[in-house]
Design a protein that fits this description.
alpha/beta; Rossmann fold; 2 domains; 7-stranded parallel β-sheet; 4-stranded mixed β-sheet; 15 helices; 11 strands
């Protein structure tokens, strides 16, 4: 029987790539959700003909209804607001719910998805950062299966021998566009500079998080909850080639790594087809052409966001939520030119100090 998908955040980078993978696999899309990009959402409706679409912005939802009604060719039901997002997550009838809504706005829809008891392809780390204990408890209570989509956490999931205990998780980071630079060199960085990631094509918020290394800090917190480890069992290494996506060290001294080209369609597909592996849209790895893999320790002085995330992780859930909120606000201010690049970490540290 053909599997069905609900994709929350379908107009974002992960959502668009998930639709590519769904088409490649022949899966049916029964629900989509987005914020307000109705031009792209209209294209997706025409192409995939979902039964349900949720648009967070009410005015955008009204406009989309008019467009869809105009030619009468689509039977898609269009909802709006958080209620619509929750409906797409919890009542779409999908076999798999892909949660890719950016930021902590994805928390309520993620919880609604978990309450279906279905498979959740989790592509939004903020619900775990803000409310990891609640998310994991809800998954257990309703029997939902969480398969991580983040390339690093997908790598850990793929490497993990569920009968063995983890000694250490090694998360790899590309280092972003400013790897090797000093704080002085980062003083006059513009949003345009920070949005030029060397390896990955992502949305603006996560790209800035990668430039500050906060994305890796959020992934540390996410990994704690997904794999039941302490922050002291998680090490971050800079790996500019982005070929090894993460590693696990076991008690016997062996380390297992997952390698693939930097293409999010691979971990997306694995989350959809697990435990099967099928031919994907990702090009196979050519190790001879690649030549070498390099690693180094992160520079916590130049990129303090990673250190701040570890601090929050050790303090607990309330500190993690404060860290995430301060980061979202600071990144938004930076992207609109209201604060400088280095001020992102300063504002997060101030918020975290006040909270602690």
């Amino acid at each position: 029987m053909k599997k069905t998908l609900s994709i929350l955040g379908s107009t974002g980078s992960i959502g668009r790539q998930t639709l590519e993978v769904a088409e490649h696999l022949g899966y049916k899309v029964c629900a989509l959700s987005a914020n307000k990009n109705i031009d792209l959402l209209e294209e997706q409706i025409r192409r995939f003909n979902p039964e349900l679409v949720a648009v967070f912005d009410e005015a955008a939802a009204d406009e989309l209804r008019k467009r869809i009604k105009r030619d009468g060719s689509s039977k898609t039901r269009i909802l709006h607001g958080m209620e619509g997002q929750i409906e797409a997550a919890g009542n779409s009838g999908a076999d798999i719910i892909v949660t890719a809504i950016a930021g902590q706005a994805g928390l309520e829809p993620t919880l609604a998805a978990l309450k279906t008891g279905k498979r959740i392809a989790l592509a939004n780390k903020e619900p775990l950062v803000c409310a990891g204990e609640t998310v994991m408890k809800t998954a257990k209570e309703y029997g939902a299966q969480i398969i991580p989509v983040d390339s690093e956490h997908s790598a850990i999931f793929q490497c993990l021998d569920h009968e063995a205990s983890i000694k250490k998780i090694i998360l790899t980071a590309s280092g972003g566009p400013f790897r090797g630079k000093t704080r002085m060199e980062l003083k006059n960085i513009t949003p345009e500079d920070a949005l030029k990631h060397p390896n990955w094509n992502m949305g603006s918020k996560i790209t800035i998080d990668s430039a500050t290394l906060m994305n890796k800090g959020l992934e540390v917190i996410e990994a704690m909850h997904l794999f039941s480890v302490s922050p002291d069992q998680i090490e971050v290494l800079i790996h500019p080639e982005s070929i090894i996506h993460s590693m696990i060290e076991f008690a016997d001294g062996s380390t297992i790594a997952q390698l693939s080209n930097p293409d999010m369609r691979q971990p997306i597909q694995y989350a959809l087809t697990y435990p099967e592996r099928k031919p994907s849209l990702t090009a196979p790895l050519d190790l001879v052409k690649l030549g070498k893999l390099t690693f180094s320790k992160p520079d916590h002085n130049t990129f303090p966001c990673l250190r701040l995330a570890y601090t929050a992780a050790r303090k607990g859930q309330t500190a993690c939520a404060a860290l995430n909120q301060a980061n979202e606000e600071a990144v938004a201010l930076f992207l609109t030119g209201k604060i400088g690049f280095l001020e992102i970490a300063d504002r997060i540290e101030k918020a975290l100090t006040e909270q602690i």
